[in-house]
């Protein structure tokens, strides 16, 4: 079976989050959607379930951390170009996302990002060319 990844993120207002990510260009699968959550397609192999906070709490016995005040995870989404990174970050910011830090240019890798409406951190990344691996010291 081909490896795929599905991430479940708690959100305060499902309709508002759906509108935000739809405006960013992502689609939702009605087969994986209900009043409690909505399945967002990132690519053929990456899916995000946006889940109402009240329902998310039923999925685990651990307490839910608040992404507005704690870092739970950093979601790194690879883009095809620096221009795509900047355009997606600018679009997210125009839709109400916040800027967690300035863009970083590492030469071979460029990153920009945003915190979505619920505080989840998205790192938009373009890797132009991986640096050559150095042999391990003897």
Total strands: 8
* Amino- and carboxy-terminal Cα gap: 40 Å
Output the radius of gyration.
Answer: 17 Å
- The run of helices and strands is EHEEEHEHEEE
Protein name: Glyoxalase/bleomycin resistance/extradiol dioxygenase family protein
Organism: Massilia phyllostachyos
Keywords: Dioxygenase, Oxidoreductase
Domain VOC: 3-127
Structure description:
Helices cover 20% and strands 34% of the residues. The protein is α/β, with parallel strands linked by helices. It has two domains: 62 residues, 2,3-Dihydroxybiphenyl 1,2-Dioxygenase, domain 1 (Roll); 62 residues, 2,3-Dihydroxybiphenyl 1,2-Dioxygenase, domain 1 (Roll), CATH 3.10.180.10. The strands form two sheets. The protein has a four-stranded mixed sheet. It has a four-stranded mixed sheet with strand order 5-8-7-6, covered by helices on one side. A hairpin with a 5-residue loop joins strand 7 and strand 8. The chain starts with a strand and ends in an 11-residue tail after the last strand. This is Glyoxalase/bleomycin resistance/extradiol dioxygenase family protein. GO terms for molecular function: dioxygenase activity. It comes from Massilia phyllostachyos.
